């Protein structure tokens, strides 16, 4: 399978008054076409910094980010990468879903003659076509999350960065968003997922990266994390949540 994203030896150091702080320390990984890769780690492990570097919001102290073979480390514009931070903010609540997406399609430099078709396409992908003319302020949380994903799909990116896509949603609505994420991966879009919901990662992720103190502690499958933790469970299968909780103390900064 083709590697869409290659991250090489990322390091990010912030200069402080008393001492420097290393947010990322020699982080390397790849994401293949259609793969869902999830970042796991405690607060301060480096997850947000990685997303910020790949998304073009932060230039690392050193290292490279290659997208489809092209070095984009210092590039501010990332047309091949869509970003969804989710939440209640980010849209004009008195405008319709279609009007919002037309505005963001223009910002994304989608050619004017193609904008209507592009908006119709992304609304269809996230199953919001039937509410395209409804004001966003009338949307449920689940619909708003799917609209965030639709916005990230404008311009047909190869990679999506999804930050907590089901945060604050009830179980049923979260499942609909998860189904949308899985459908996108099945269509060939690569996804970097951050989530604090272990069952969500267990369900969606092809691979996970355990981060601790800005370093890669483990990189592999969910079953590999469970094996690494080696929890005794009286014969029943251990969960990712149980395994992560056992490993978490090793991931925290001293």
Describe this protein with a few key phrases:
254 residues; alpha/beta; Rossmann fold; Helicase, Ruva Protein, domain 3; 6-stranded mixed beta sheet; 4-stranded antiparallel beta sheet; 34% helix; globular
Description:
This protein has 8 helices and 10 strands. It is of the alpha/beta class. The protein has 2 domains: 3-80 and 157-251, Rossmann fold, CATH 3.40.50; 84-151, Orthogonal Bundle (Helicase, Ruva Protein, domain 3). The protein has a 6-stranded mixed β-sheet, with helices on both faces. Helix 2 crosses helix 3 and helix 4 runs parallel beside helix 5.
Can you tell me the overall shape? globular
Note the main sheet.
6 strands, mixed
Radius of gyration: 19 Å
| Sequence of strands across the biggest β-sheet | 6-7-8-3-9-10
Euclidean distance between termini CA atoms: 38 Å
CATH fold field value of the largest domain = Rossmann fold
Count of the separate structural domains: 2
Query: What would CATH call the architecture of the largest domain?
Result: 3-Layer(aba) Sandwich
Order of helices and strands: EEEHEEEHHHEHEHEEHH
Weakly predicted, low-confidence segments = none
According to CATH, what is the class of the largest domain?
Alpha Beta
* CATH homolog superfamily of the largest domain: P-loop containing nucleotide triphosphate hydrolases
Summing up helix and strand content along with how strands pair, one would put the structural category as: alpha/beta
What's the total number of strands?
Answer: 10
Mean pLDDT: 91
Number of helices: 8
Helix content: 25-40%
How much of the polypeptide forms β-strand, as a percent range?
15-25%
Protein name: ABC transporter domain-containing protein
InterPro entries: AAA+_ATPase (IPR003593), ABC_transporter-like_ATP-bd (IPR003439), ABC_transporter_ATP-binding (IPR050763), P-loop_NTPase (IPR027417)
Domain ABC transporter: 5-238
Family: Belongs to the ABC transporter superfamily.
